[in-house]
Amino acid sequence: MVELPKGLEKKYESASEILNSYNKFRVISHYDGDGISAASVLALTLMRENKGFHARFVSKLPENLPKDIPIILTDIGNSQLEDIKKIDEPVIVLDHHKVDEDVESEDEEHVFINPHNHGINGSDEVCGATLALILSMIYDKKNVSLSLYGLAGAAADKQNIEGFIGLNESLLKDALDEKEITENVGLFIDGKNIRDALLKACDPYFPGISGREKEIDRILEDVDIDHETPVDDVSSKAERKLNTLLVLSLLERDIPSHVIDSIRGPHYSSKRYGLSVDILYKLLNSTARTKQAGLGMSICLGDKNAFKKAEEIRESYRDEMIERLHSLEDDGPIEKENIQYFFEEKKERKGELAGLSMLYIFDQSKPTLGVCELENNVDISARGTKKLVNNGLDLGKLCREISEKFGGSGGGHDIASGSRVPIDKRDDFLAEFDKAVGEVLG
Ligand SMILES: [Mn+2]
After folding, report:
1. Does 185 map to a domain?
2. What pTM, to 2 d.p., does this model score?
3. C-alpha distance from residue 173 to each of 75, 142, 178, 228, 411 (Å)
4. Residue 186 domain-assigned?
């Protein structure tokens, strides 16, 4: 079992006591892949005990929380702990988002589990779903069998870019030891067969290859792999050859080595549920993106039809992404002195597109902004690289300060952040952003 700092362990014991003492819960979770995984871990835990639950997904916590039965908040809540304290019913908050003030509760009926208050970095060491998995395993250690769902949440929050670390890693180790999860090394691509996997490879994205039939057929002929071969059945010799070709194509485009290293690595799967962490988190992200979190949760609860439906949603999303990435590859970004940007029509795609084009297509020395014009505002996603962040770039700070200056709002992480500003301030915002990045990186 994972080792926790003493203070955190005590909180988990109080939370487990609440689970034990009541028979019905409201689970309110964040509307994203991690939030769906977290709610699913709790739902499965409660179902095993014949306890009732009602799950709901929100992007923002409602002002007035229902006050009839105990509440469990997952992947959300840290910014509203003062209000949560006032609720009469027991409340457990399992949230890994960093907030400015650290609010603690004084009684055992309100349990606030925030890793940041215990020296654990919630941005990459533990997520909403793995915080929930720890509670589930403390409640009953046989719930290690739910590890797949915890790890999928961490992957959905991009906490495994260079492998799982911190508490996530300890949980993975437990799951491997208990044989709930198995490890296989391979390329991070998936599809009906190897050709389909390359046709639809958008993350990782291979410029000049992904989605391009002629090029893919040429490569598969080169490495002597039959088109119809399932990805997992490609011989290890052929897989290594294919990997070499893909790496070379990325090297030619000056893509940084840590990105190249991340195209191949360990895949984690659960035999019990017949699913891999990678596929599951991508399906959950697709359902969250299309506002069908309930469908995502149904997959985790074992609904085969939900799985099929989510696969179809993901399929069409991947087709759209490939098409957009091709056009970004062909047209390039709009260049300013210190930043580069592009316009995107679909709000929910701009962040991912900015991230992928930053890593795989555009100039690595400038942050990339995806700009989406809405009716009265523009929404902007900003993405950087690790190197830029190491050189002092903090996109979260820039997004917050510059959007506020123009009557908007924004914030986020140093490497990935977002802003919303009134539409008539679009060019002012971009000019100011360009100037500010120049001052930091100049
Ligand atoms: Mn999360």
Report:
1. no
2. 0.89
3. 23, 15, 9, 34, 34
4. no
